[in-house]
Amino acid sequence: MTSDTVGLVGVGMMGAPMAANIARAGIDLVLCDADTDRAKRVAEEVGARAATDPAGVARQAGRIITMLPNSAVVEQVILGAGGLAEAAPSGTLLIEMSSGDPSVTRNLSERLEEKGVRIMDAPVSGGVPRAISGQLTIMAGGKAEDYAAAESLLSAMGTPTHVGILGAGQALKALNNLVSAGGFLIGIEALLIGQKFGLDPALMIDILNSSSGMNNSTRNKFKQYVLSRDFDAGGFSLSLMAKDVGIAMKVAESTGTPAPLSALCRELWATASKVLGPGVDHTAIARMSEYFAGAELASDSVPRKPAKAD
Fold this sequence. Notes:
Helix content: 40-55%
Order of helices and strands: EHEHEHEHHEHEEHEHEHHHHHHH
Strand order of the largest sheet: 3-2-1-4-5-6
CATH topology of the largest domain: Rossmann fold
Distance between the termini: 47 Å
Largest sheet: 6 strands, parallel
CATH architecture of the largest domain: 3-Layer(aba) Sandwich
CATH class of the largest domain: Alpha Beta
Number of domains: 2
Structural class: alpha/beta
Number of helices: 15
Shape: elongated
C-alpha cells in the first residue's frame, strides 16, 4: 500500500469523470469496476491503473473511494470475497461517496473497526455535468480527522463540506433529494392544473421562475426534459431517486419524525419506478402524473424532440 495512492471502485457515469478529475490533480490512481473492461478503458483514458478486484485496489491505495449504485453493492464490495476488507491494512480510509443508507454505513464502520480500517461518507450532488466539470457539492460525514485526511482529495472533485457525524452526509443527500423529488411532482401537478384551466405551461414556467414557486425543476427540467418530451436529464434514473426518497423516509422513521407528505412522495416515486421501469430517467415520472390527469403537457413555444428509436 502507498498512502499517497488513491483507489476508486465504481467508474460508471459519475465515477469515470470523478476519476478524471482526481488524475488531473496529479494524484496516483488505481481503478476497479464490476465491468473490468470499463475499468481498463477509463484507466487508459485518465492515466491511471486498473485492478481486477477491490482487494487489488486495497493492496495499493491508502484512501479508497466507493461510488456505487446502493449500499447493498457497497457492502458486497467491502465485505465480500475479493473485497476491500480482505486486503485493506490498518490505517486505510474508505470514503463512501455513493448515495447510501447511513445505517448500513455505520454498521460497516463497526465491522471494520477491529481491522483498523476507517470509513466516512461523502455523497455528492450535481449529476454528471458537475462531475465532469469538477464542481460537485460534496456532503461529508465522519470524524474530523478523517475529513481532514480526505479534504484535499474531495476538493479535486468539487466543494466538500463536513456536515457532521458518520452517516450525516448520506442523510443530508437523501433529504436534499426528497426536497427535489417533492418539488418536481408538485410542479408537474401545478402545470397540469394550469394547462387544463387554459394556461400555457411554458408561460407558467416563466412566471414561476420569476416568482416564489421557482425551484430546480422549474428552472432546469420542465421545459428542457418534460415539455420537450426528451426525458433524459443526464443519467439520474427514476429508480435512484426512488431509492434516495426511501432512505430519507428511513431517516425520518429512525428519528421519530412524522412526515406524512414525504411518505406520500415516497409511495409515488416507488410506484412510478415499478410502473415505468427502473431504467428510465427520473424526469419520466411526469408521465405518471399526466396519466392520472388524462392530459399530456405541451406548449407550442417548446419544440418536441423526435421520439428515440428502440
